[in-house]
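Q: My collaborator sent me two sequences in one message, no labels, and asked for predicted structures for both. Can we handle them in order? The first one she listed is below.
A: Yes, handling them in the order given. First sequence, followed by its structure tokens:
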Amino acid sequence: MTTDIPTSEQLVERASSLVPVLRKSAQWAEDHRRLSDEVIDALADAGIFRMRVPKRYGGYESDTATLVAVGTELGRGDGAAAWTSSVYWIPTWMVGHFPDPVQEEVFSTPNVRVCGTLSPGGMATPVSGGVRLNGKWAFMSGAHHAHWQEIVAIQAGPDSEPMPIVALVPMTDLQVVDDWFTAGLKGSGSVSTVANDVFIPAERILPLGAIIQGQGASVLNGDVAMYRSPLLPVASASSVGAAVGLARAAVEEFLERLPSRKITYTDYTEQKEAPLTHLQVAEAVTALDEAVFHAQRLSGLVDNKCAAGAEWTLEERVRARADLGAVCRRAKEAVDVLASASGGSSIYLDAPMQRIARDIGAINLHALMNPNTNAELFGRALCGLGPNTQYL
């Protein structure tokens, strides 16, 4: 299968054109705790779900710099839509490490959507030809509209040591549990899924350690640049656009409301005349600029290493995690400043600022994105200590 490959600029333009649709649908997504079918169709039509699919299946093989730029535009429209798209990008990339016949099965679905997690949530018991899977996986963003789920489980048998594995499971084999009642990223539909004695054939199973190291079983993807990287730097670069986009949305929302706002109980009939407002806007935009810097440095590192096919050093892996955390921290700082400057009227549900603040807060609480966790990891390396995680 072949297709015309849009340029990075064209994909960013497509994402930008979706901003009005995403903003219009954001409240529906909040109310229904999932993205609307209209938004999913719009994302599909724009090619968002093809960005990490191999070209031979009609994909674009987009680099992570393009993911950051596209994710930023989507985040300007709706953080939940940007986050869900980012989550789809990561497991879709992981599918490219499976044997080529498995990829043929998964990518035969146009605009295929794969949700997933990196946390073990179940047990896999070896049986003839594969494993039997039982377990539950939470925070499964985009599960409602996914075709497949990438799961992590512990494979354990009477004659082998327990080993974490990655497996691909059709969504039709899983039970979706409607338990996504949250304060932030409500529209992402990050429900839980359950497997009850599901059989998974051996060809749809890989050791987690192999994918973490970027060592797959695909022959045809052996020379494809985007697969020449360990998992965690790719996942880090795939995620940060949503955070940057939310910070940009906060700046746009604040400046749009500014001309019509005063500062109640003061003599300022226009908020824009107050020196405090000048300081707040400058502080927020500077924090946003810093978030953009770290996002671009992260994606540049990933893309340059992929292009060269070079080995990753421990320092580079830790730096990728540090940049991920820095993006999230700086983006939240930008949003927090502008949210606090938006006054009491911004807490109404029809004011986008309150949703932006809750969404960026939720992203910063994510285990992989958490700024403090990533900063600690970076600091350990700077102090000459070994990493306290395998997720590098």
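Q: And the one she listed second?
A: Here it is, processed independently of the first:
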Amino acid sequence: MPTPDQVPGQPQVDQAIEWLVRLRFEQPSPHTELQFQQWLASHPNNAQAWQRVSRMSDELASLPSELSRRTLDSTRRQRINRRDSLKLLAVLAVGGSLGWMGREPLGLPAMLADTRTRIGERRSLQGRDGSLVQLNSASAVDVRYTADQRLLTLVRGEVSLDSNPGDNRPFRITTRLGELQTADGQLLLRENSQGLLLAVKRGEVALYPSSATPHLVHPGETLQLDPFGGFKAVSLHGDPWGWTEGVLSVQQMPLGEFVDELARYRPGLLRCAPEVAGLKVSGTYQLADTDQILLLIARSLPVRIDYRTRYWVSISAA
């Protein structure tokens, strides 16, 4: 097994992605090719990162060249942060494997998961035990059943579980921040920038944080878990369960927060100008058509929607 210093880090992965984009969508000169070979030989991790990233080139090859060049030209004209750059790469991969790299190099665990969804896709799984598992956009899970237990592993993103109470086996859920167990619970788990969001709708859920005392979570409770094992009750501006019904339902949510939510369901970049980020949004919106949602926002708030391309949208003051 490779040691940590033998595994490509995020800087090497980012550089490999940049080279892949340059070599795939531009017309590299002999000087550019020489620079690439020099970078490749400058560190063993660079060669490993390139080998892994280049495996994704088939997904990039399916993207129309005209769209690729327009998107890349936009990035050259504007200075964008690392988060937007990584999301742009998800556009170039058409919502595929490259879109997972922002959280871990190459997102390999998510690629190898039993079930996964792309950006904007949602999926339902009916378990052999009668339980219902639903995956939200850009999510991945592993599901295992044995004679003694049912096990769900949240590999990435967001999942809801409606456990069948008629099955006597405990249902365990493992995440990066700890484990949960229930017999008859209906619960939701979502990875976010603060750690992990847990909401319980039915039944009791035993929470075993990675570095804290076990806690029993009751129906109606919503908790935010942090990476250090702590947790606290939280109130949200929207219904966390809405996506399971195909909607985004919010109440007095700041526009900036709403845009971040909506961006989870559409490929590309969706940006909100700071001067309008505090405007409040309320309503229930159908996730099947995110362009229609943007149109409704423009009609109800003093904002304008600018499409650089289908995959690069900005919201600013009207």
